[in-house]
Amino acid sequence: MREIRIYVEGGGDRSDTRAAIREGLSNFLQPLRQLARDRGLGWSVTACGGQDAAFDNFRTALETHPEAFVVLLVDSEAPVAQGPWTHLKAREDNWDSGDLSDEHCHLMVQTVEAWLIADPDALASYYGQGFQRSALSKRQNVEAIPKAELVPSLDRATQRTQKGRYHKIRHCSDLLGRLNPETVRSRASHCDLLFTTLETHIRG
């Protein structure tokens, strides 16, 4: 293996907003990116917009970059009770992972907003005065927060701040780069699995 390549959903249809998500996620994964560089490995994060586009880019990369460890990172959109490929195949009729192992597919459970909620200190620092921490779920396991509650709780927590209500395109990329990875990993087991899997492959 000569490089790590990650294909993530997010960033919408514009190149600049996709670039912002790429930068935010790369900053969140900075400990792994640095470890890869220390080992002389390449590192690439590609924000693809929609989930189908992420999967298509991931499948293409498997063929065009055989020397890379290629990872797909998408929202689960629902509770996860089985492996990631099995979970996604049940939701996406046209997805075929072939004989790929689950280590190539990782989920943000139930959406990326759970990762944001996992680190209220980062949110408070970003939004500043008027941020209402009490509006966020107190569950230790943020992956148990229903998808339908994630954005509304962020909306309530941020509605009185100078930056205004949480906005996925405008705010998510900046917030990702501010999160404490250890804090998020302690509250989101699938995030922890992503870090563990990547570190294992980087270390060889």
Can you describe this structure?
- By secondary structure, this protein is α/β, with parallel strands linked by helices.
- The protein folds into 2 domains: 3-112 and 172-203, Rossmann fold (3-Layer(aba) Sandwich); 115-171, no CATH class.
- It has helices at 15-28, 30-38, 51-64, 84-91, 112-117, 120-127, 147-158, 168-178, 181-187, 189-203; strands at residues 3-8, 42-47, 68-75, 105-108.
- It has a 4-stranded parallel β-sheet, sandwiched between helices.
Keywords:
204 residues; alpha/beta; Rossmann fold; 2 domains; 4-stranded parallel beta sheet; globular
Topology:
Blueprint: E1 3-8, H1 15-28, H2 30-38, E2 42-47, H3 51-64, E3 68-75, H4 84-91, E4 105-108, H5 112-117, H6 120-127, H7 147-158, H8 168-178, H9 181-187, H10 189-203
Parallel strand pairs: 1-2, 1-3, 3-4
In short:
With 204 residues, the chain is α/β, with parallel strands linked by helices.
Structural class: alpha/beta
Number of E-state strands: 4
Low-confidence stretches are none
Alpha-carbon Rg, integer? 17 Å
What proportion of the residues form beta strands (DSSP E)?
5-15%
Helix content class = 40-55%
Query: What is the level 1 CATH name of the largest domain?
Result: Alpha Beta
Query: Shape from CA axes?
Result: globular
Question: Biggest sheet, in brief?
Answer: 4 strands, parallel
Count of the domains: 2
What is the residue-averaged pLDDT? 96
Topology as a string of helices (H) and strands (E) = EHHEHEHEHHHHHH
N/C terminus separation: 8 Å
Count of DSSP helices? 10
- Side by side, the strands of the main sheet go 2-1-3-4
CATH architecture of the largest domain: 3-Layer(aba) Sandwich
**CATH T-level topology of the largest domain:** Rossmann fold
